[in-house]
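The aim of this short unit is practical: by the end, you should be able to scan a pair of folded records and say something sensible about each. We start with the first protein, listed as its amino acid sequence and then its structure tokens.
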Amino acid sequence: MPASGKVSTLFVRRCVYFVFFDKPLTSSPPQHTWVGAASSENDGCTTVNHGELDPMQLETAERTTAEETGVRREEWEIALRAEQAREQVADEARRQKKAEEMAAAECYAVEQEQLRQEQLRQQEEEKLAAEQYAAEQEQLRQQEEEEARAAAERYS
């Protein structure tokens, strides 16, 4: 707050600019039309004592005040648009991150399903190989039994 204790429109503008853009206002302040005597405590805003002005000066002062109000409204609208743009960028970043996370999760699920299918295939191959080995062993056992019977019949 200024040392004088008064808050001017320029001070408010600088504060608003700093809040919205996170940096101080670096450009020079707009040129104001000074009407009447400016006090030494004034920090750049138009100060008007309406009681001491003639109608021409009063009209000029009112025009200046209207211009300052228009500038404030413009600055507010610019700040609002900037904030909306920041929010839109942040929302887009969140949507992008969520989409990437969903794509990664889907990719992981596909990989897990492929691994599961591969394991099932390997288990089926192992089962078939075990069955084939068992069948071969059974066939060998039957052959040995037949040979043993044939040999027993020959010797009897």
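Turning to the second protein, read its sequence before its tokens, just as you did above.
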Amino acid sequence: MSFLARRTASALPKARLFSTSAANRSSFAKMTIVGRLTAQPELQATSTGREILKYGVATDSGRGDNKKTSFFNVTSFTPEGTQRDFIQSLDKGTFVYVEAEPSMNYYQDAEGKNRSSLGLVQQKLEVLQFRKREEGGASVAE
């Protein structure tokens, strides 16, 4: 290797160019969901008055008699503005790609039984296929 090539190579930053995550974050979990919205996203208020969006995504796996559908509830903390308005306007059946940060929540139900649920906080949402609107305003799959 020439002197100039070695000098250029050693001058390159020692950063992780493949990731935009913080370098000091030692562990994390990420979940990717590709499926259809189960209903139009709903705006809800938390106990502190903060507005959040909640929506469900259905995914299918298997074929024929082995076909199973899984349902995932997603929470979005997208602030008020055009992005939140866009998410709210999506119709049931819209085909979406969602990246979310999962967390396990543990609690006791009204009968005192220990329960758990998977919490998903949206990090990214992309529409893969919109629902096509008919003349009467109803949506149908494209």
